[in-house]
């Protein structure tokens, strides 16, 4: 009788331990479930991973811009670039999704008579936006935020060619390990991008990473900047492979081309 009770007790105890371990494993898995660019947490599954996001919305980015289908308009000074030669970068970090440079208060743009302050620059390799189906080796996003919390992102495509002094400056702070950051507090001259001389496409979209927030103003420049193959590869080696979101449907949106 004692033997039977002992066996029964052990059986119950093992069941309780097993259940506890199962709950612990499930909890751990849930906590570790985070969006990425590959596998079960890749862009195709972001809506499943990020439950309260806009990732399944109808106004998502990036898109493939077909030039013959855009609404061409003569530049009416909707966009004013107000960068100075003394923009201050506060820090650089590897957030596990991209290399990101954060800026101190200072530089801004004026878009449709509203001021947006430059907050950060990050990179995607290869490009997220396409022009006429062409994928570029890299895309740089300059994220600006207004006092009201509205977002305007400048998308600059990059193609391989000669060396870029700007990218040499960015990459002087690399390599940087995932999750790490470096204080910089140095000046950078973004006016060297000469964005005010470039033609651009404009449309209403979203952030290209979760939570995929919509109501984002997108300005994608038609003319790419040039950087060397080595500079592209150095950035690539510090970021996840293929850290881009797949093309999103237009869903009736009109893309304007400012020339």
Number of domains: 1
DSSP summary, beta strand count? 16
CATH superfamily: Alpha carbonic anhydrase
Order of helices and strands: HHEEEEEEEEEEEHEEEEHE
CATH fold-level topology: Carbonic Anhydrase II
Strand content: 25-35%
Structural class estimated from helices and strands:
alpha+beta
Overall CATH architecture: Roll
Tally of contiguous helical segments: 4
- The proportion of residues forming helix, as a percent range, comes to 10-25%
Sequence-ordered SSE layout with sheet pairings:
Elements: H1 2-32, H2 46-49, E1 64-65, E2 71-73, E3 79-82, E4 87-94, E5 99-103, E6 108-111, E7 114-124, E8 130-131, E9 134-135, E10 138-145, E11 151-160, H3 165-171, E12 181-188, E13 200-206, E14 214-221, E15 225-227, H4 229-236, E16 256-258
Parallel strand pairs: 1-8, 2-16, 11-14, 11-15
Antiparallel strand pairs: 3-6, 4-5, 4-12, 5-7, 6-7, 7-10, 8-9, 10-11, 13-14, 13-16
Notes on the protein architecture:
The chain contains four helices and 16 strands. The chain is α+β, with helices and mostly antiparallel strands and 259 residues long. The chain has one domain (53-258): Carbonic Anhydrase II (Roll). Strands 2, 3, 4, 5, 6, 7, 10, 11, 12, 13, 14, 15 and 16 form a 13-stranded mixed sheet that branches. A three-stranded mixed sheet has the order 1-8-9, with no helix packed on it. Strand 10 and strand 11 (151-160) form a beta hairpin. The protein is globular and about 40 Å long. Its cofactor is Zn(2+).
């Amino acid at each position: 009788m004692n033997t039977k009770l002992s066996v029964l007790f052990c059986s119950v105890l093992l069941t309780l331990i097993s259940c506890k371990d199962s709950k612990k494993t499930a909890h751990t898995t849930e906590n570790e479930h985070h969006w990425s660019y590959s596998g079960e947490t890749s862009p195709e599954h972001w809506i499943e991973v990020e439950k309260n996001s806009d990732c399944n919305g109808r106004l998502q980015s990036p898109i493939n811009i077909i030039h013959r289908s855009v609404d061409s308009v003569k530049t009416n000074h909707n966009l004013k670039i107000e960068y100075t030669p003394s923009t201050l970068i506060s820090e650089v970090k590897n957030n596990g999704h991209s290399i990101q440079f954060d800026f101190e208060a200072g530089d801004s743009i004026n878009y449709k008579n509203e001021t947006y302050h430059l907050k950060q620059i990050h990179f995607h390799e290869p490009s997220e936006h396409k022009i006429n189906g062409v994928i570029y080796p890299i895309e740089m996003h300059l994220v600006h935020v207004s006092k009201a919390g509205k977002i305007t992102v400048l998308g600059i495509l990059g193609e391989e060619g000669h060396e870029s002094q700007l990218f040499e400056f960015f990459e002087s702070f690399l390599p940087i390990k995932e999750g790490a950051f470096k204080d910089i507090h140095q000046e950078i001259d973004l006016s060297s991008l000469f964005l005010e001389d470039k033609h651009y496409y404009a449309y209403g979209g979203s952030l290209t990473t979760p939570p995929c927030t919509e109501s984002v103003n997108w300005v994608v420049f038609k003319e790419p900047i040039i950087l060397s193959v080595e500079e592209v590869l150095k950035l690539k080696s510090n970021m996840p492979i293929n850290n881009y979101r797949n093309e999103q449907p237009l869903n009736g949106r009109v893309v304007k081309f400012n020339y």
